[in-house]
Amino acid sequence: ELKVEQNPLFLSMQEGKNYTIYCNYSTTSDRLYWYRQDPGKSLESLFVLLSNGAVKQEGRLMASLDTKARLSTLHITAAVHDLSATYFCAVDITLGNQFYFGTGTSLTVIP
Amino acid sequence: EAGVAQSPRYKIIEKRQSVAFWCNPISGHATLYWYQQILGQGPKLLIQFQNNGVVDDSQLPKDRFSAERLKGVDSTLKIQPAKLEDSAVYLCASSLGYLTGWRETQYFGPGTRLLVL
């Protein structure tokens, strides 16, 4: 079974600081997604990464994909309180018609 | 544009009872997904429909869970009989269509919170 692991699981950071969330997966895939979930809310799509080397940026968030290393990163630049949420990566294994979410990273940005 | 609608938002039942959830996807979206999200975990895909046909139900516990999507629009997910471990949030999502073998951006509904006592 495919494993999608995120690191760290919990992250507390001060406003203005930078940090990176890592997403590792255990089988071949060249499609990776990042979602945000606020407490008690549903999921919001952030990024879709479709090929090796893909990089996408939106505001203070930047996501990248290295399919050879089976690794995606979500980099946070100059964090602000509004970024506090849980972030999930998800991997698409098309041949098996399977779609797996990671364990999630709970981010708290402290003023 | 209206989002994905789900009902009910909350449901409390006793074990061995039955329960059903309803989902109305975004208009024009051919693909519909049901997920189970247990507290503290990422969502787990239960079943995926393309129009009214099932694309993937490999992780659906078919002895107690069933789902249908009549006429390729609304969908219902049923649990019969419920177990304590079914307590979770059930999320419905939709996307335009399963084109060229990859999944497009999914839009999620607010979810139904189920508590089984």
Flag low-confidence runs of chain A: none
Q: Assign the structural class of chain A, choosing from mainly alpha, mainly beta, alpha/beta, alpha+beta, or little secondary structure.
A: mainly beta
Q: Kindly, what is the distance between the CA atoms of the first and last residues of chain A, rounded to a whole number of angstroms?
A: 40 Å
Q: Could you tell me the radius of gyration of chain A in angstroms?
A: 13 Å
Which band does the percent of strand residues of chain A land in?
A: over 45%
What string, H for helix and E for strand, traces the elements of chain A in order?
EEEEEEEEEEE
Structural class, from secondary structure content of chain B?
mainly beta
Number of helices of chain B: 0
Main sheet attributes: strand count, strand direction, barrel closure of chain A = 6 strands, mixed
Identify the biggest protein-protein contact and residues per side: A-B, 23 and 24 residues
Q: Please give the number of β-strands of chain B.
A: 11
Structure description:
The complex is a heterodimer of chains A (111) and B (117). Chain A is built from no helices and eleven strands. Chain A is mainly beta. The radius of gyration of chain A is 13 Å and the shape is globular. Chain B contains no helices and eleven strands. In chain B, β7 (65-68) and β8 form a beta hairpin. Chain B is globular. The model of chain B has no long low-confidence stretch (mean pLDDT 91). Chains A and B meet through β5, β9 and β10 of A and β5 and β10 of B.
